[in-house]
Amino acid sequence: MVLNKNSAEIKPSPSSMGDDIQLIWLQGQGCTGCTVSFLQADFPGVVDLLVGAIPPIKVSIDYHPTIMLVWGDKALELIKKPPERFVLIVEGAIPTKDDGVYCLMGEVEGKPITLLEYVRTLAPKALATIAIGTCASFGGIPRGHPNPTSAKGVMDVLGRDYRSKLNLPVINIPGCPPHPDWITGTLINLILFIKGKAPPPSLDEYNRPSMFFGKTVHESCPRAGYFTEGEFAKSFGEKECLLLLGCKGPDVRGDCPERKWNGRVSACPLAGGVCIGCTDPDFPDAMSPFIYYPPKPIPAFIPPPTLTILLYGYGIKKKLERKPWKRR
């Protein structure tokens, strides 16, 4: 396989077309929710990816702390000598304080090895590096104030200038957790790129795949019409727009309302809950409190021309202003 450094296009050799793409999946400071979400993928499902049900898409999950059978020294051997062609996946934030001692992968010859060390070692050797979940992408909940372990996302650890063996930056798939489609869809796009059959994933300014994060949650929300008419729910359980109750949909990107969750049944605004902004780089601090109760009585009807003034008056202006992401 040859990479054209000028155009970042791949010219696959005949021998590479049928090869499995091997995955090394590391887990850091997180709840394993991203793995649970990935395992719930239905079309294609994880088994489809493993058996190559959709040629030429076929993967091999060589290392994953939650689902692999091997353990201990035998497990560490899988990442001490990584395969030649692998994709590095990181789930969970990476603690950096005290040389990353707050998240250990194991021991090698009696020496504790940290997640921080392994990420820095494996990323330059990987065909691509993917951060799955908001914790791995931007630090997420572990990075929230006061951030006692100096937790960071993969891109902060490796640096904005990081490029994989295929000249790709860190690909961020945020969400708490991310939708299964976001994970499998990005993997499929990436594998097709590796095999020379598709361009690389298109990314936004935060290195998120544009096909999933190209528009705000609000744009595909069925309650958006009420927003336009200035009709807002005064309490949960009502059908109108939930903005005044804390919904972050107008400021946060993701296709949740149209893609839907749990077998494509529902999503946060559809089920009566607010969007808590879990795909945002500044989640959770900038999105807190998740539920917002206005300090003043809400009028029975809000004329659309007064909408902006009202939102400023209710103190939501700060929530909706888009600020450059401040890396911590």
Summarize the structure.
By secondary structure, the protein is α/β, with parallel strands linked by helices. The chain contains 13 helices and eleven strands.
Descriptive overview:
The two termini are 37 Å apart. The protein folds into two domains: 2-213, 3-Layer(aba) Sandwich (Rossmann fold); 215-328, Cytochrome-c3 Hydrogenase, Chain A, domain 2. The protein is of the alpha/beta class. The chain is globular and about 65 Å long. It has helices at 33-39, 46-51, 72-80, 115-122, 134-138, 140-143, 154-158, 180-194, 210-213, 224-228, 256-259, 307-313, 317-320; strands at residues 2-4, 9-11, 21-27, 59-63, 86-91, 94-95, 104-108, 111-114, 128-132, 151-152, 171-173. Residues 1-18 and 317-328 have low confidence and may be disordered. The protein contains 13 helices and eleven strands. A hairpin with a 2-residue loop joins strand 7 and strand 8 (111-114). The strands form four sheets. Strands 4-3-5-9-11 form a five-stranded parallel beta sheet, with helices on both faces. A two-stranded antiparallel ribbon has the order 1-2. Strands 6-10 form a two-stranded antiparallel ribbon.
